[in-house]
Each structure stands twice: as C-alpha cells, then as structure tokens.
Amino acid sequence: MSPPALLRRIRRHVIGRPRRWFVVTAPGLETLCEEESAAAGLPPAIVLPGGIEAEGRLPELYRAHLALRTATRILLRLGAIRAGRFEELERRAASFPWELYLKPESAIGFSVAVHRCRLHHRGAIAERLHAAIRGRLGCVAAGAGGGGRQRVFVRGEEDRFVLSLDASGEPLHRRGLKRRAGKAPLRATLAAAALRLIGYTGAELLLDPMCGGGSFTLEAALLAKGIPPGWFRPFAFFDWPAFRPPTWEHLRRTAARGMRTLEAPRIFASDRDAAACRALAEILEENRLGDAARVACADFFALDPAAFPGAPGIVVLNPPWGRRLGAAAAARGLLRAIVAQLRERYAGWRVALVAPAAWAAEIAPLRLARHELVHGGLRVGLFHGTVAGGERLSRGPSPSRTDA
Ligand SMILES: C[S@@+](CC[C@H](N)C(=O)[O-])C[C@H]1O[C@@H](n2cnc3c(N)ncnc32)[C@H](O)[C@@H]1O
Fold first, then answer.
1. Does domain 188-225+260-401 match CATH 3.40.50.150?
2. What proportion of the chain, given as a percentage, has pLDDT over 90?
3. Can you tell me which atom of ligand 1 is nearest the CA of 321?
4. Which residue spans of the chain are classified as CATH 3.30.2130.30?
5. Looking at the predicted structure, is the pLDDT value of residue 87 above 50?
6. CATH 3.40.50.150 domain range(s) in the chain
7. What pLDDT is attached to residue 182?
8. Run of H or E including 75
9. What is the C-alpha separation between 331 and 363, in angstroms, rounded?
10. Is 305 helix (H, G, I), strand (E, B) or coil?
C-alpha cells in the first residue's frame, strides 16, 4: 500500500475514532486511579479488577500517560480473535490491520495469558501471532528496533483472544528521573497512592523521616511543583505510526503552564543512612527539584516535628519490612517504637504509613484507616489518618539501632 493511502487509513481508523484503553494498576489501586483520572478531566472510566477502562481519542490516551500517578501501564485495545486451532489463530491475526498500529521496523514482544482455551501454549501463541504480524507488515527481520520496542498483550479466555498494544513501554512507576542505583525503593505508584489517600495537595509541610531512596519525597516534590509524573520519560506510543509529535508538544506546553518554582521547601526528607541522604540530595538537584525538598541525615527518634515551619503537617513513613531472614521480628519491634513515637510527638499530624497488611496489630493504636493492595505478591497496607495520641508509651530498647 502506498504511504499516502496508509496515512489516510491511519487518520480515519486510529486517529479519527474514539478508542478504548485499559489502565493497569496494582491490585487494590483501581478506585484511586479512577478518582485520579476523573480529577484530571480524562474520559470517564469504569473500574475493573486490575485497572480501569476508558474510551477516548488518542490525545487523551497520551495525556493519561502524562497525568496518572497511580497507573502501572496503559493498553490500547485492538480487538479480539476467536480461535481453537493455531492455523485459525494465525489466519485471523493476519487479517487484522497491524500496519495501522505498528511500524515494520519495530521490535515486537508478546505477553500472553490464557484461561480455559484450547490453545494454551503461550510460546506457540506468540510465535503464530508474530508470524501473522510479520507477514502483514512485510517485515524482513523480526524487528530491527528502528521503530522502537512494542509489546502486544494477548489475553485468552474460552478461545477468545483479546489483543492490546502496550502504549507505555517501561512501567509507569518508572518516572524517568535521573537516579542512582541503590536499594530497591518504594514504587512511585504506591507513594503516589499513599499521598493521595492522605490528601496531600503539594502545599502542606511534609516530613519523610525514613526516606531511603526517596520515593515519597520525589513524588511529593513533583506534586508540589505541579510537574506531571510522565514529564521526564518517553513512551512506547512515540513509535506508533499514528503518533503526531505536535500533539504531544501541545500537551506538554499545556502541562508546563501548571508548573511552579517554590520559594522555600516544604518537604523535609531524612534518614539515618548518610549515603542514602547524599544520593537523594543529588537526585533532587539533578532533576531541579531542590526548591521543593531538603534532605538531612537524622534519626527519626531524634527529630522534633514541632520545629518544622507549618507544623503540624503530614508525615509519611515506609519503615523497613524486614524481608531478610530473621529481620521480621526486629522490623516489627521498630514499627511498634515508631507508632509510640508518633503518638507521643506527632499528635494532630496526618500520617501515611506503608507496611505489610499483616502488621495491622502493631499499627492499631494509631486508629488509622487501611487501604489494602497487593505489591510484589505481598498484601500491603496504606495506613492513613490523623494521629490522635499525645500520650507517652513504652518504646522498648534503643529502636534507632534496630537493624531490619
Ligand atoms: C524501606 S526503607 C524506605 C524506602 C523508601 N520509602 C524508598 O522509597 O526508598 C526504610 C528506611 O528507613 C531507614 N531507617 C531505619 N531506621 C531509621 C531510623 N531510626 N531513623 C531514620 N531512618 C531509619 C533506613 O535507613 C531505610 O532507608
């Protein structure tokens, strides 16, 4: 097909029509993501297990990438094929207009899941689909990579295969900030969810006194400065034949109007690990977020929260979970000490605490609401509310030296 004829078809069938997409979230974050999407003025979405589904034009899909903080990835729905035999699958896939969505030079990967299908060999399904797409696009090789890396998601249920194209590329919790390699930080999507639950607007005083890699601080700094989470990174849809850079530039220019430089930081990060603090300070500087947040090396138990301007504010905590063998008991001991410290010194503060859901008993004295989600196969609680407390509790032996 001649390039102008293909362009016309892309304009008519992909750009000019409302499309359906599925925003994947961590299980448990669906409702939060729907609220976030509605607040951003994105097309109405319905909540489903594992994400939200919406329909709109491609620029809205692009804007969702720029704006959504709790989303993991976004899949453009392409269509569905019914097949009980491999020949059928390949034949029907070959009649699908892949050229409207993929460039011939793209490297193509597959993510296949099947449930109650006669075809259940995931590798063979991917192979047949790949052959069909290559034939349709007229590819010589299996993708030289010049059209970027694209991933087709296939979900088979009772012989019906739903095909989607990953619009995001790298998972969206990777914000694209310049970072140091270090300990695995809390996912940005979880930090964003906790900040949303506690009602952080970007204007309040916020303490992150066990900051580690700084996910809370970085996420809060983006919010405080009005920077959308997708500002720093590329997306897979940049390599779609339907992508128009001017549309993206327009979305970015509009988003840039909401950004601000702050006169004085209102986010205070600290950790007893000096190297972690140094690394976070550098990340803030390199990403020009230094006006929003300041970092200091300090022990949580030595902080005087009342000394911070704007107190009482919000305190966010992601204490060690003690996943290493033998560390869980120490981590729970540290958590009890944190809870006692919060009740003693943080009365009137709003708190967001991320911890294994199974630790609810330790956190119970704070009488916080709990939002549960699944993260890395573990049930995690986003505990949030205002600290009542004010009374002195027994804290146990030297918590600051607890090594979890
Ligand atoms: C699970 S990590 C936090 C991860 C962080 N949310 C991130 O995004 O990377 C827990 C952190 O608590 C810090 N920590 C443990 N006990 C502390 C204490 N008494 N005072 C300050 N920091 C402490 C550790 O050094 C570690 O960086």
1. yes
2. 86
3. 1
4. 3-166
5. yes
6. 188-225+260-401
7. 59
8. strand 73-82
9. 13
10. helix
Q: Whose CA is nearest to atom 13 of ligand 1?
A: 210
pLDDT band for position 328 (cuts 50, 70, 90): confident
In CATH terms, 3-166 corresponds, of 3.20.20.30, 3.30.300.30, 3.30.2130.30, 3.30.420.40, to 3.30.2130.30
Q: Which residue out of 186, 271, 382 has the highest number of ligand 1 atoms within 8 Å of its CB and is therefore the one to mutate?
A: 271
| C-alpha distances out from residue 144 to 104, 134, 150, 167, 357, Å | 9, 12, 12, 19, 45
Please return the burial class of 239, using the count of CB atoms within 10 Å of its CB with bins 0-12, 13-18 and 19+.
buried
Q: Please check whether residue 313 is in contact with residue 204, taking contact to mean a CB–CB distance below 8 angstroms.
A: yes
Q: The whole model's pTM is what? A: 0.92
Amino acid making up residue 245:
P
Compute φ and ψ for 21, nearest 5 degrees: -140, 160
Residue 312: cis peptide before it, omega within 30 degrees of 0: yes
| Ligand 1 atom with the shortest distance to the CA of 208 | 6
Cα radius of gyration (the chain): 24
Q: Which atom of ligand 1 is nearest to the CA of 211?
A: 5
The runs of H, that is alpha helices, within 202-348 are 215-224, 245-256, 274-286, 328-345
Nearest-CA residue for atom 19 of ligand 1: 400
Matching residue, tokens 């009772």: 158
Cβ pair 303, 208 in contact under 8 A: no
pLDDT score of 388: 87
Q: Is the pLDDT of residue 74 over 80?
A: yes
